[in-house]
Amino acid sequence: MSRPVQAPVPVFKLYGETHHWPTPDLLHCESIPERSRLHDWHIRPHRHADLVHVLHIASGQVELELEGTQHALQGPLVIVVPALTIHGFRFSQDIEGHIVTLAQPLAEQLGQRLEEQASVLRHAEYHRLEPPRKARRLATLVEQIDAEYRQPAPGRERMLDALVQALAVELSRLDSHRLHDSAPGLHQRDRGHERLASFQALIEAQYRQQPSIERFAEQLGMSSAHLNALCRRLADRSALQLLHERLLLEAKRQLTYTNMTISQVADSLGFSEPAYFTRFFKRNTGFSPRDFRLRQHAAEPQKQDAPGQAS
């Protein structure tokens, strides 16, 4: 009798979606009910190649799946889901809380700034928020992130950056129930995961120079074919696509948050000619850099009312 073929775990940019990260921000925040109710309160097991989730559950129940381990949990608690971790949730319909999603570049930046205090974002775990004082502190901080994310205001990016740093520090202080204590081997990542993480770190350090994939592979001690196969297996994208997604994200950020000319943006991202940058940007977004900038500025008054998009 033949064995059933196990379906691969899907890799999403956002739960149920495969298009580019939809915002120039390096983080996303929404209430948990916003997306989970669209999926009948059940987020099926999946993973993200380059996103880190922090779920704050103020009240309600969740059946949590992390790397094949099952946990029935009650709020208040915080759940940390690093990139590449297989995760799924089944929420009670009275769930209250938020999910803060960090793009990998922001997670890398936090690691550089906070060092060991940011290591909490690299381990799949949950933290019970006891005593009530801890629950109030985390709830207040997450509510501030949510409010700042939704409301355009002067200094918004700096404020969000400061609040996310505070969140990482606060998480590092928790006396946590660590999953790797109760489930040995959960964090023994295979060599492929480690190599993909190393590649993503190299992208973050070097994307402005746009090294060739062959150059990246050489730095990692592997062939470009092996690197591409690794990226397709774990991230469902080629190595070049991962580099281009980082370039595209930074281009969106500069077009949205700076007054740099199109030529200056192109030069800062390693394009030899503005025309090459314009073609690259339009091919990946459907808009010219100029049109994208105009649309972003026109949309700013409505941003506070935009629905959440990440899970």
Name the features:
311 residues; alpha+beta; five-stranded antiparallel β-sheet; 12 helices; disordered C terminus; Arc Repressor Mutant, subunit A; Jelly Rolls
Question: How would the blueprint of this fold be written?
Answer:
Blueprint: E1 27-31, H1 32-36, E2 42-46, E3 51-59, E4 61-66, E5 69-74, E6 77-81, E7 87-91, E8 96-103, H2 104-114, E9 125-128, H3 132-150, H4 156-173, H5 179-182, H6 191-206, H7 213-220, H8 224-235, H9 239-257, H10 262-268, H11 274-285, H12 289-299
Helix pairs in contact: 3-4, 6-8, 9-12, 10-11
General description of the model:
With 311 residues, this protein is α+β, with helices and mostly antiparallel strands. The protein folds into two domains: 27-178, Jelly Rolls; 191-297, Homeodomain-like (Arc Repressor Mutant, subunit A, Orthogonal Bundle). It is built from twelve helices and nine strands. The chain has helices at 32-36, 104-114, 132-150, 156-173, 179-182, 191-206, 213-220, 224-235, 239-257, 262-268, 274-285, 289-299; strands at residues 27-31, 42-46, 51-59, 61-66, 69-74, 77-81, 87-91, 96-103, 125-128. Helix 3 (132-150) runs antiparallel to helix 4, helix 6 crosses helix 8 and helix 10 packs across helix 11. The protein starts with 26 loop residues before the first strand and ends in a 12-residue tail after the last helix. The model is unreliable at 1-7, 11-19, 176-188 and 301-311 (pLDDT under 50).
